[in-house]
Amino acid sequence: GGAGYLGSTMVPMLLKEGYQVTVFDIVTWGISSLLSVMDNPNLKIVKGDVTKHEELRPYVEESDAIIHLAAIVGFPACKKEPKKAKEINQESTEFISSILKKDQQRLIYASTGSCYGAVEGLCTEDSTISPLTLYGETKAAGEKAARNVGGVALRLATVFGSSPRPRTDLLINNLLQLAIKLKTFDVYEGHFRRTFLHVKDCAKAFIFALQHYKTMTGQAYNVGHESMNMTKMDVARAIEKYVDGCKITESTEGQDLDKRDYEVCYAKIRELGYNVEYDVEYGIKEMVKYLPFLNEYEAENSKNYQPTQAQS
Known about the structure:
Layout lengths: L6 H10 L4 E5 L17 E5 L5 H9 L3 E4 L6 H6 L1 H18 L6 E7 L9 E2 L10 H15 L3 E5 L1 E3 L10 H12 L1 E5 L4 E6 H13 L1 H4 L3 E4 L5 E3 H9 L6 E5 L11 E2 L2 H4 L9 H8 L8 H5 L9 E2 L1
Parallel strand pairs: 1-2, 3-4, 4-6, 5-13, 6-10, 7-9, 8-12
Antiparallel strand pairs: 8-14, 9-11
Helix pairs in contact: 1-7, 2-4, 4-5, 6-9
């Protein structure tokens, strides 16, 4: 998944740290997201499909560490392609875990807060896992496989912000794009609480886990910050500050089919020394500079599937 939204942010960071990096990616969205690091001799790119296990095997076996980002991400995308979601999110992880040399290799898995489902109170890593969607279910299964062989599972908040491979289907990015285009629209169930993480802080968390693996091995960690436990309408109010003429209202008719409504505690990873640098307003201010200029081709290729969180 090294050429995707998160991977294309992370790969330059890994190279800057001096790692030799093999990107194994199906390159659905092309390879332009990595053009800025193509001249780095420590970068190798392989076009491959993680569902073709024997194709993947030699690249897993030759690596000291595997950062597994490949996924069908989010409720709408997994609902649209349930078979592929299970193959990529769950079965590819189970395969990687099955051939991992536990005491010689490191595995860091991109899990998600969606594993929790609808939880009352504050979610910690000890909270019961009760996913509400296929996305959450497949990610929880992948996390279990990774942790069983000593892997580290990072339960990510909903990511936002600018990346070399843009995405406009993530909640904050999507709401901001709608605000720029439509100015006025409704949001379903805006009181639902979600939690957010800038893509650069997200990428940094994987490198942190790589460098603190002995301490973190076999465990799950929430990644984010309590200051970004926000309702959808909190996000809407932040967006209105930076888009002239924008007015976002809460719909009283439709419903958000993704029923997550929760707050998350991030103390566990913070106690190890990990901290976020970027807040929601930072992400909005950077994205408002370029989202108006995405042409139709770029906009179409910056999303996975049409999200259901907002309705124009």
